[in-house]
Amino acid sequence: MAITTVIPSHKFKYATGKQSAFGTPAANPDYQTPVYTASLLPQETRTDIDVIQGSAYASVGQLKSQAFGAGDVEWASLAASLPRYCAMHFGTASDTVTGAGDPYTHTMVRKDTQLPHTIWVSKPAAGGTFEHDRLQDCVAKTLTFRYANGELFHVPTSILAGSSTGIATAPTPGTTETVTPTLYGHTWRGATLLLDIDATPAVTAVTTLQNFEITCDYPDAALLWTQNLNPDFLSMGRWTMGMTASYIVSDWSYFNATFYGSKTPSANTAQSPTVFKGAATFTIQQEPSSANRTVVITMPSLNMWLDPPSPDAGGGPIIATLHAQLQDPGVGVDPITVAVKSAVATSFS
Fold it and tell me: Is the pTM of this model over 0.85?
């Protein structure tokens, strides 16, 4: 038997462009960005054709009742394109640009009106060629900011798409991004956390941070069908935000705040009904060699709690997990602000 080469799975490419409106796919993507993992592809729902009588079989066939797109994409977070994936989740008019030159600051906040995007999934074919699926009317149901010490910044998304086009015309990205050692070095570092109880903005530095995840989500988002194969409506539902952060315990202040209502409780203090509230600000260096490529994530109104840490019989450090979730910050205050510095002058939303 002759040996035949197989299609390499790592050759998939993902590119994204902003649409002017639902139902109007983008002509070409703004960015083709490296991804860590991805499952975004066309999806469908099949239904058996049931027959009440007159057939010896339980079903005489199937029909396609629903066609759409869905899946997860974990993007590399790069200074130029990060606001593109934020806008896919935060919505129309979410990006305000300031600055007279490089760096421009993109200040992004959540809006109620969704901003649709087109995503091209380029599948490798034989001979180094590609076939392209174009998914249109895409929204990011979930947007996560993921940092771990010593790694590049990751931005996982969970995406819903209204429809897809097969064997689509090959996209021409405005920018094709890559991750190179000359840009990032080999020992990438660079996240700092300011965290405070009952203080906005946060001003106290946490220097023992190991990793964190901030997840913005529409947990009940759904595509809705009426008479068509593709969905007719999109329902986003309520918006939530949560955070987890792992850090090395150097004192018991957050433990005390969780259970006894204060970072510095008095002697013999009983468990308190007081909920630990505060604010958090993360600063991430997207390119450690440049102060003009930072991301600052500000959350001014959080409920917080600490998981009780466990002792290590081997004498290792105490590692604790801090949790936080959104508390309504009140009228006129944004629950999360993401400020990205880059050389891009135009708005992403």
Answer: yes
